Amino acid sequence: MLDDFMVRATLAGVGVACAAAPLGSFVVWRRMAYFGDATSHAAILGVALALALNLSVFAGALAIALIMALTVTALSGRGYAMDTVLGVLAHSALAFGLVAVSFLSGVRIDLMAYLFGDILAVSKTDLAVIWGGAALVVACIGMRWSALLMSTLNEDLAYSAGIDPKREQMFLTVALAVTVAVAIKVVGVLLIAAMLIVPAAAARPLARTPEGMAIIAAALGALAAVVGLRAAYVFDTPAGPSIVCVAAVIFIGTSLFGRRLAIR
Predict the structure, then answer these.
(1) pTM listed for this prediction
(2) How far apart are CA 173 and CA 187, in angstroms?
(3) How many domains does the chain have?
């Protein structure tokens, strides 16, 4: 069954949606949208280093995404506004990554595939990595759900319950780095943040509970992946951007009519 490239592409898209949905919910609740951009843009530097050192692209993207996430966490509260820190790091990392790619000699690289994704070229190995990473992210967030939710809603309440909000913030940054590394093959570094934010934002008007929002976001993200791939096949458009376009249309629809359809 997995010999069909469309089946592999669909499974890859659904896997990324499952990983991004619960994490994207926290990104929306914590207003961390630009944080996702910074981490994803850094991944292109990881791709360049991985190719230069003959390592796995997943390993390189994960390592640099982790370094970026930890750097942002360390620099927060050092006198700069968070959006300023994220802006500097996001664009600097992307620029350094693109420059590093230009120095690679003897290595053929399809830069557009890493920037915008190449889901149709997903292999069985890529599929195993995507679903393995997605399972890890979902399992870890599930185990830390109560602590993450409490530290998101009220830090003082979290401290009184013996929960360290900074530790939970660090946990989210690591989970975000794993998701970025998993998703880079599917939608590329420039569109990863969209898959984190758009399905979660679309699910918000439909949900009555935080758990419901995460589940609905996963369903909407999977729907966007399936419909976007079908649209790309029919209209001969880029697959990654097509998936994000469908997610954006879903967001518009739930924003306009979501309150009437809200799941109670």
Answers:
(1) 0.86
(2) 20
(3) 1
Q: Is residue 41 part of a domain?
A: yes
Looking at every residue in the chain, the average pLDDT score rounds to 84
d(CA 151, CA 172): 11
Query: Rounded to the nearest 5 degrees, what angle is found at the Cα of 130, between the Cα atoms of 175 and 170?
Result: 5
Average pLDDT rounded to a whole number, residues 71-87 = 71
Is 235 a member of any domain? no
CATH code at position 162: 1.10.3470.10
Q: Tell me how far apart the alpha carbons of residues 169 and 182 are, in angstroms, rounded to a whole number.
A: 20
**Higher-confidence residue: 218 or 191?**
218
125-162 confidence digits (pLDDT tens): 888 989 998 999 999 999 999 999 999 888 888 888 88
Helices (H), 53-154: 57-75, 82-102, 111-116, 124-143, 145-153
If you average pLDDT over residues 236-250, what whole number do you get? 92
Q: Is 1 helix (H, G, I), strand (E, B) or coil?
A: coil
- Please indicate, yes or no, if residue 184 is contained in any of the structural domains: yes
